[in-house]
Write a structure and sequence with these properties.
160 residues; 5 strands; alpha/beta; globular; Damage-inducible protein CinA; single chain; five-stranded mixed beta sheet; Maf protein; CinA_C
Length: 160
């Protein structure tokens, strides 16, 4: 894990703690990388509730209440699914703030309109839900690392 990610995780932790908020993560393409990054920070038990690693579509439905019909219609890599993952994570945890990641880290998995490196993000706090879709360059490791960084940066925006 890079020092940049650790520094960003510590900044997220300070922001959450300052506002008395708990975080939940709902991750697919990052495989728990965001949860790992934030729990590297000492004292994270004060602001991190839990993380869901929902790699399969079935787990997104079973654990996060993401509509199977939504995924069938739009694919699991969509802003709508990222939004539903974040919302479902909030509903199924004790947290106040959620972030979600779903994407195609590669090297395979690309579909028309969604090349390798496509990642959708969701951030939720109360009734506020933000989503974003980006396409990152690089190999599987690079895509996943960039996704963790961007997810944490977006989290800071919704906290502050």
């Amino acid at each position: 894990m890079t020092n940049d990610i650790l520094d960003l995780s510590a900044k997220v932790g300070r922001a959450l703690q300052a506002k008395g908020l708990l975080l939940v993560t709902a991750e697919s393409c990052t495989g728990g990388g965001v949860a790992q990054a934030v729990t590297e920070v000492a004292g994270s038990t004060g602001w991190f509730d839990c993380g869901f690693v929902t790699y399969s579509n079935a787990s997104k439905t079973e654990l996060l209440d993401v509509s199977a019909a939504l995924m069938a219609q739009l694919g699991s890599v969509s802003e709508e699914v990222a939004s539903a993952m974040a919302t479902g994570a909030l509903a199924n945890s004790n947290a106040h703030v959620a972030l979600s990641t779903t994407g195609i880290a590669g090297p395979s998995g690309a579909v028309p309109g969604k090349p390798v490196g496509t990642v959708c993000f969701g951030w939720a706090r109360g009734d506020t839900i933000l989503t974003e879709r980006l396409v990152f360059a690089g190999d599987r490791h690079a895509v996943r690392e960039q996704t963790v960084v961007h997810a944490l940066q977006g989290l800071l925006r919704i906290i502050e």
